[in-house]
Amino acid sequence: MVALVNLGYLVSISLFVLGLKLLLKEAVFQAMIAITLFIGMITFTGSVLAFAKLEEWTKEGPVVLPGHRLMNGLMLASIVVLSVIHVLNPSSPGILILIVIFAVSSVLGLRWCSRSAGPTCRS
To answer: What angle do CA 46, 121, 57 make, to 5 degrees?
Structure first.
């Protein structure tokens, strides 16, 4: 049942985005794609990590890697640069840039969420 609701949500969002594509300039639409991909992957990987911590599949305490802030800053900067390149020239490498944004955002989401000490709401 939940899967059907999620499928309906996905279809409605897709139709909404396609409708916006008809109304907006191409650069704004490409920027929306990059931003949505960035936020969506951070949210998704954070949710997966929170679920894993709730199920006690991972270490409960915070995981802080050496150079954590520097690496996060570099990954965030690379996402911004790749997004700007994609907006200015969406047709040249196109999907490759979006795949890199997808991958870097996923890793960044895991790195950001791994610093939390774990879920505090246990049943």
So the answer is: 55
Going from the C-alpha of 61 to that of each of 50, 66, 110, 112, 120, the distances in angstroms are: 12, 16, 14, 14, 11
Residue 98, pLDDT score: 85
Q: What are phi and psi of 87, to 5 degrees?
A: -70, -40
Mean per-residue pLDDT, 107-119:
75
DSSP annotation of 20 reads H
Of the candidates 40, 31, 38, which has an alpha carbon nearest to the alpha carbon of residue 13?
A: 40
The angle, 0 to 180 degrees and rounded to 10, between the axes of the packed helices 68-88 and 26-54 is 150
Q: Please tell me the distance from the alpha carbon of residue 108 to that of residue 97, in angstroms, as a whole number.
A: 16
Are 86 and 97 in contact, with CB atoms under 8 Å apart? yes
Average pLDDT over residues 86-114: 83
